[in-house]
Design goal:
seven-stranded parallel β-sheet; six-stranded parallel β-sheet; homodimer
Chain lengths: 584, 584
């Protein structure tokens, strides 16, 4: 047990320190204490770190501040639990207003010893209030790979935030359990070169990094681009040109603005959420370089796929200071406007290799054919399929979260119409969806909303505004009488409390709601009624509600049937997989 | 200008310090600085204050902590702006966990010099996070009486919180404009006895204070009791016995549980909201002692009446640590369970004087007669009047905020039925009213909700729960098509933007909402339809909605007409006013 505890402590913190050092933090001012022992010992053990000790934390912090100011680099300060950290406060505030990158490390009691009168245990969470740029209460040390990645990622992130404009202090609070002694025998700080690189651009990619990245890009034979929500619409052309030049398939989320429009679509994958689930294909599809733009796509299958890969270079390109990498697999965090990022590489590759891309295109095309062939029954997916085909050029479709966005992910295929898809993917809530779409309708022509019955109910009151300001929108309510997404989750297998806690059927007839708010209304129960209902809604101004009656169980069964069908056929068709000619 | 500025600074801070001293803070540790000059000079000038100076704020704070620990009393520490206050942090945290009453005073820049790069201006608001029991950013100094009262009140309050169980630090942040020199000539710290007394009981009134208060009570000839919302239901009997023994009229808010029930009602005033508006009566009704229980009553007329009085003893009795005194007129803040407070005085007065009470009873009875006689037209008030009479014994009526609670205040007359009136008066919102009432219905028989159309619309979704759990409730919706209360406010006189910004008519037919949620429904447009509708609703289980159609303009006109009628008649009838026989 003690060995296991010690191993966790050692690997987790060694990774954290290695990462700090790799990102330029190689001086630390330590104020002696007990709880901070593991970090103190590991810092001292690192051959590349210069340590100073100072018993007065207030002086220690200002001393660290002085080093940082003189050498223009981030400096760490480390102290024990209790009021020790409070003595850092004046220097932390000076660092904030003086714009000095200070990495503040406070040790803390573990959660079970907080607020129970343990000695030197005070509430250290957010100890410096608004006076630090970032504050994090770290997880307890663990040595499984994902947690070691988390330690690395957190270290790189803090240094990045601290040294980002305007520079300033960041705060890590580390809870530790006793015993507090790491096993220094287990540590080899061999690699001083961090596996994480944080590249801070002022919108532009710093030229110093361009060569390294280009080199990595050219060496790669199996690169992929992943486009999530939140990419600037004006970056689409550049991303496509970049991917075309380097032969990279683009896995494009429905909210990325990449699937639809007049741009060329030879590289765009629109069925990955389906084919990436096929076990027999996974290995063939494994990339050797991932370049991500925007937030994580909605596809859970893609997220699992990316997590399952061996360590490969993963560039997370972000048009801001976000750290959009819940997989913690990023090796490069690149803060740069997507457009300018792509421009830095365009026109620098003379012999593009098409084989890898063509394999992906083949898989994608086969899948699309199967999705069309295999989708027989009338269900929510089929309705979404018809809705997309019906949308006029220039339409805006707002998608609710939960099932609608997932159905869009499956059935929104690339085409040349200019169709813009939006959703609230900041916090992914099902609240306020009707009102957000109505707000968007004030600046859009041909406005449509795709929404489930729960989300529609949640913001029913939003319709009052539509009537007051005479807004125009067609609302397609997928009424499966409750929370459809839960039927896809593990709790659906045990029916004991399922309907009450998750299914939550409401048994509402939205015809009454339409009357209350003076909206047009039609109810659709069969496939042949849907298109006529859409066409009729297009004839009328104001709010038109089309209530599509579906069934939760059937939806799940159909979805699973379709995935199984695709999986079976793809396994048969794509036998042999992809063989990289360059590695032969 | 400078004189005026100096006068503000001087009177405001002298009052604050006098109040600190009056509440036992007579030692202060000062760390020299510029911004803190006015407080430093005034502390030094106070003959009853012992000052210490210490240039290191960290040491100064711990030194102050030591005094407080040794002498078991609250001690103040004062420093300048900027990181000075941050140096207090370790001692503040020690005081919190060590339970030491420390009064932390930090000087700050005024608002216009914050976050604009002024020297030594950091964000000092909530500087100590969760580590102080109370933190307040004070108003800039002003010398008008209400602001001097606020300074006094804040001082007394902070000491009270700091010395209350468990003892701990409190933080005042004081913004000051230059010049920073008070006029010491203007200050006379003559009264070391504070005008505020904070009496902290551990539920019980400390016996040491009993004699003084009893003395004050016996000397009074014109005392009144004010009962607001939030009084314990089990305290009603004691409050009444107390008021009866001392001949005190009880001004009882509709949410005080005092107006209705089987207890004796000889002292209870239920029409004060109306008669207190009558200018000619005000002087006759002026009390010489006010004893308040619970929160401030809903009546704005009462609030204005209490504010308009000359300085008189005002006891704010609170069953907890609240400081429920927006008028800032309290002279005694007494933390004591209401029941135990009253018991401390019962049986100690042998010759109760009835004259004062009888005058109030006469005024109240006359008013009630006039309210009944003068109220001819059918309107919301009339509906409330009928609703109250209809309620069965044991009923619970939940009132929405805004107009319903005000109509109840006017028309809820004392009677012997056990009717319990509730409302959300914590933050007085119109959100969630339907759901709160439905929640209450799970623990009440004969549940009624009185609500306006805006609040009803706001929580329409709440009705889903009623259907799901088969809850029973009759909802009386006063539909005046918009925000009725605004018609009583000054903005109603200029109609330019009134309907759009305040009236907010919704033109909703709630019959559709009733259908959507499967509720019983009837619409009432005339007086003779209302009682039958209530009786019919009582026959059916589930939710019954009675929509009472009213008119905003007519409601206001009727209300004003009624008040004018009462005022005219009362002025005529009560000519001569009350003459205190004891003062003749």
């Amino acid at each position: 047990m003690i060995d296991e505890h010690q191993e966790k402590l050692t690997h987790y913190l060694a990774a954290f320190i290695e990462e700090l050092v790799g990102n330029g933090v190689d001086e630390v001012v330590i104020s002696p204490g007990s709880r901070s022992t593991p970090l103190a010992l590991l810092f001292a053990h690192h051959p590349g770190v210069k340590t100073y000790t100072n018993v007065d934390e207030r002086s220690a912090a200002f001393f660290g501040l002085g080093i940082a100011k003189a050498k223009k680099k981030p400096v760490a300060i480390l102290c024990s639990s209790g009021t020790a950290g409070a003595n850092y406060y004046p220097a932390v505030i000076e660092a904030r207003y003086g714009k000095v990158p200070l990495i503040v490390l406070t040790a803390d009691r573990p959660h079970e010893l907080r607020e129970v009168g343990a000695p030197q245990a005070i509430n250290q969470i957010d100890l410096y209030g608004k006076h630090v740029k970032w504050s994090v209460d770290m997880a307890l040390p663990e040595s499984i790979p994902s947690m070691v990645k988390y330690a690395r990622s957190s270290a790189a992130r803090g240094v990045s935030i601290s040294t980002g404009y305007p520079q300033g202090p960041v705060h890590y609070n580390f809870p530790f359990r006793e015993p507090l002694i790491p096993n220094l025998q287990q540590v080899e700080f061999t690699s001083y070169q961090s596996v994480k690189t944080v590249i801070q651009g002022d919108r532009q990619l710093p030229s110093g990094y361009q060569h390294d990245l280009l080199d990595q890009l050219k060496k790669s034979n199996r690169g992929i681009v992943v486009c999530g929500p939140g990419i600037g619409e004006d970056a689409v052309q550049s991303i496509i040109a970049f991917a075309e030049e380097y032969g990279l398939p683009i896995l494009a989320d429905p909210l990325s603005f990449v699937r639809n429009g007049s741009h060329s679509k030879g590289n765009i994958m629109d069925c990955y959420d389906t084919f990436i689930r096929v076990d027999e294909l996974k290995e063939s599809l494994h990339p050797d370089l991932v370049i991500r733009f925007g937030a994580m796509p909605v596809s859970k299958a893609l997220m699992l796929f990316l997590k399952s890969m061996p360590d490969i270079p993963t560039w997370v390109v972000s048009n801001g200071e976000e750290w959009q990498d819940p997989t913690a697999r990023g090796t490069h965090y690149i803060q740069c406007e997507e457009n300018l990022f792509c421009q830095a590489f365009i026109g620098k590759n003379d012999k593009p290799d098409r084989e890898w891309l063509e394999y992906w295109v083949g898989v994608n095309d086969e899948t699309k054919g199967l999705l069309n062939d295999g989708h027989e029954s009338w269900d929510e997916g089929k309705a979404v399929h018809h809705l997309i085909r019906h949308l006029p050029d220039g339409a805006t479709l707002f998608s609710s979260n939960s099932m609608p966005i997932r159905d869009l992910d499956t059935f929104l295929f690339t085409d040349d119409r200019s169709i813009r898809i939006f959703a609230n993917r900041g916090a992914n809530g099902i609240d306020g969806v009707v009102s957000t779409a109505l707000g968007m309708s004030t600046g859009s022509q041909s406005m449509y909303l795709l929404i489930g019955d729960l989300a529609f109910f949640h913001d029913l009151n939003g319709l009052l505004t539509a009537r007051k300001y005479q807004l125009d929108m067609t609302i397609i309510v997928m009424n499966n009488n409750g929370g459809g997404i839960f039927s896809y989750l593990p709790q659906a297998t045990d029916q004991t409390h399922f309907e009450d806690l998750f299914g939550t059927p409401m048994d509402l007839d939205f015809a009454h709601a339409a009357k209350l708010y003076g909206a047009g209304y039609s109810k659709v129960s069969a496939e042949e009624e849907f298109i006529p209902a859409l066409m009729e809604a297009d004839q009328y101004k104001g709010i038109n509600i089309i209530e599509v009656m579906t069934n939760r169980e059937e939806n799940v069964a159909n979805h699973r049937k379709l995935w199984n069908f695709v999986s079976r056929e793809m396994t048969r068709k794509m036998k042999g997989g992809y063989r990289d000619s360059s590695s032969e």
